């Protein structure tokens, strides 16, 4: 089981060091990649779960709960075992010693096997992700499947590299009068304890896998607590992990599922004295609560942010508009990396098609979005569906926030007539309205803001991100000096920056093994996916020594 994955682990270790392009799991759903019939088998596997208890044997109260409804208008009807917290935590603690004693290499190779099995079921997971998040199928396959799997493997590589950065044993010999002093020393990686992963609604696998595998590879049992609207993708994940661990001779309680229906289970688990690590993606409000109220745990949070674009000038007017239109439309802006604030000098900008006034920039962006989403049947494969009623309410309220540049309109989905789909809304807001644009409006909502100058735009970027956080920032300019200023502003604000994106790379997408997701240097996140700091606090090193 393990030996076949040594090459994959070695390539992952090389990739995190070089930061170039590498992917272990192909993102194309083509039959040439995953085999003839893989898509149909995955669809059948997904549909086999609907309307039934999920096949997961881990005990519980005896009650089966779950009320997931697809944003495409389908009640999934899948139920899951209601957990007993003390039983889950107790079983995880009991499973820890053997997993710890197995050592870093065995744990890493076992984790790679889990990810490999997950990859083999990518089409099944794609259906689960699509119908719990509202992502279009291709995005659900890519982001919920291979891209998430790459992030998992990246976390495994970082964990393994951190645990093996120094020798596990040493012969210590110090010169002395007469015979030297000689000691044999052993250094053991000791996990922090039981870990908790709190999943999100929009990217249940992509956001959960880094924490899940960073904790597991470093020796910590993991309790996975999904968002109540997006349980199935993580239930499948837990099922696979438990199967692999059992086959490898370990207690499957190393990974368990904790499902709820509005009982406040995340708070109950996060504050349990035996929960020593918490990974969370979601709202700023709950992320802040976790940071305040779980002092016994290492808490990693990814929260809301105000992603900002500064437009100074461009050498590709049409390329810039097309790139921005795609970024605003992808998954209806329901991404923690989607741009929100677009800062443009009130005097306009210089482009390869001549000077463009502020109003022309705003109108050009609105026109680009309109052209991109002009055909409903094609548009829904980009926008997906609105994930929950709160997003829809924000979209409908957005016109009251300023002058509407582009109205949102409903789209008809050809395959799912009950799906709720909306195109982006773009609103012009004055620069003194920081009470509006200075916080996140999650969903397909963006603001174009006329500033006094590019320097003022960069100052707004710096201020808002320092105050509210961001996961992405972007700048457009034909001036190297302005781009340098933008980079300095991003460094000051602690946000990752993309410049002059006009082609097939978009600000709201990041590549595993090369791009860092979040920085941990502003309020939007306490950690980066994935860097050494993300894994280092998940274990300690305990030494023993004796005379040789």
Work out the helix count.
Answer: 20
In total, how many beta strands? Answer: 19
Q: How helical, in percent, are the residues?
A: 40-55%
Sheet/helix structural class: alpha/beta
Terminal CA distance: 36 Å
Shape estimate: globular
- Going across the major beta sheet, what is the strand order? 14-15-16-11-10-17-18
How much of the sequence is in beta strands? 15-25%
Main sheet overview: 7 strands, mixed
Condensed summary:
This protein has helices spanning 6-18, 31-34, 38-49, 85-102, 104-120, 122-133, 137-144, 146-163, 204-217, 232-247, 265-270, 284-293, 317-329, 358-372, 376-383, 389-397, 434-437, 454-468, 480-493, 532-536, and strands at residues 64-65, 80-81, 169-174, 181-191, 194-198, 222-225, 255-257, 275-281, 298-302, 308-311, 341-345, 349-351, 354-356, 403-406, 425-428, 445-451, 473-476, 497-499, 539-547. Helix content is 42%, strand content 17%. Keywords: NAD, Oxidoreductase.
Walk me through what this model shows.
This protein has helices spanning 6-18, 31-34, 38-49, 85-102, 104-120, 122-133, 137-144, 146-163, 204-217, 232-247, 265-270, 284-293, 317-329, 358-372, 376-383, 389-397, 434-437, 454-468, 480-493, 532-536, and strands at 64-65, 80-81, 169-174, 181-191, 194-198, 222-225, 255-257, 275-281, 298-302, 308-311, 341-345, 349-351, 354-356, 403-406, 425-428, 445-451, 473-476, 497-499, 539-547. It is globular, with a radius of gyration of 24 Å. The protein is α/β, with parallel strands linked by helices and 548 residues long. Keywords: NAD, Oxidoreductase. InterPro entries: Ald_DH/histidinol_DH (IPR016161), Ald_DH_C (IPR016163), Ald_DH_N (IPR016162), Aldehyde_DH_dom (IPR015590), PaaN_2 (IPR011975), Proline_metab_enzyme (IPR050485). Residues 85-488 form the Aldehyde dehydrogenase domain. This is Phenylacetic acid degradation protein PaaN.
């Amino acid at each position: 089981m393990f030996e076949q994955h040594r090459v994959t682990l070695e390539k992952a270790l090389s990739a995190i060091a070089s930061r170039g392009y590498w992917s272990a799991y192909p993102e194309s759903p083509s039959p040439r990649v995953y085999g003839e019939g893989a898509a149909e088998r995955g669809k059948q596997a997904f549909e086999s779960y609907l309307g039934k208890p999920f096949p997961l044997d881990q005990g519980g109260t005896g009650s089966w709960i779950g009320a997931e409804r697809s944003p495409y208008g389908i009640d999934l009807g899948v139920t899951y075992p209601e957990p007993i917290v003390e039983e889950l935590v107790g079983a995880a603690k009991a499973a820890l010693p053997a997993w710890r004693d197995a050592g870093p290499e065995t744990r890493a190779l076992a984790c790679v096997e889990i990810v490999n099995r997950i990859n083999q079921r990518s089409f099944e997971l794609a259906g689960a992700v699509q119908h719990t998040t509202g992502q279009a199928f291709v995005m659900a396959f890519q982001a919920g499947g291979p891209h998430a799997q790459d992030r998992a493997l990246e976390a495994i590589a970082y964990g393994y590299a951190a645990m093996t950065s120094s020798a596990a044993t040493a012969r210590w010999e110090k010169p002395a009068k007469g015979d030297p002093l000689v000691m044999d020393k052993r250094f053991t990686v000791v996990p922090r304890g039981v870990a908790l992963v709190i999943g999100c609604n929009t990217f249940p696998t992509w956001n959960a896998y880094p924490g899940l595998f960073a904790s597991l590879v470093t020796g910590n049992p993991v309790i996975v607590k999904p968002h109540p609207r997006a349980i199935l993708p993580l239930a499948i994940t837990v099922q696979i992990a438990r199967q692999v661990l059992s086959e490898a001779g370990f207690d499957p309680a190393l990974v368990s599922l904790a499902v709820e229906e509005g009982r406040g289970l995340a708070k109950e688990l996060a504050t349990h004295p035996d929960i020593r690590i918490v990974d969370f993606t979601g709202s700023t409000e709950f992320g802040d609560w976790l940071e305040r109220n779980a002092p016994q745990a290492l808490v990693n949070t990814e929260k809301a942010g105000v992603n900002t674009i500064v437009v100074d000038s461009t050498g590709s007017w049409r390329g810039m508009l097309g790139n921005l239109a795609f970024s605003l439309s992808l998954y209806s802006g329901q991404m923690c990396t989607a741009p929100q604030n677009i800062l443009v000098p009130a005097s306009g900008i210089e482009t390869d098609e001549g000077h463009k006034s502020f109003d022309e920039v705003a109108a050009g962006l609105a026109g680009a979005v309109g052209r991109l989403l002009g055909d409903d049947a094609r548009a829904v494969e980009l926008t997906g569906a609105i994930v929950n009623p709160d997003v829809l309410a924000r979209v409908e309220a957005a016109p009251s926030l300023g002058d509407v540049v582009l109205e949102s309109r409903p789209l008809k989905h050809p395959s799912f007539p009950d799906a709720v789909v909306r195109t982006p809304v773009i609103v012009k807001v004055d620069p003194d309205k920081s009470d509006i644009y200075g916080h996140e409006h999650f969903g397909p909502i963006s603001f174009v803001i006329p500033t006094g100058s590019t320097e003022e735009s960069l100052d707004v970027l710096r201020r808002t991100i320092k105050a509210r956080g961001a996961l992405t920032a972007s700048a457009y300019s034909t001036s190297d000096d302005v781009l340098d200023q933008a980079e300095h502003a991003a460094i000051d604000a602690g946000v990752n920056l993309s410049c002059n994106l006009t082609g097939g790379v978009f600000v709201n997408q990041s590549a595993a093994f090369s791009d860092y997701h979040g920085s941990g240097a502003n309020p939007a996140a306490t950690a980066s996916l994935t860097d050494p700091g993300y894994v280092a606090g998940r274990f300690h090193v305990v030494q023993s020594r004796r005379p040789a």
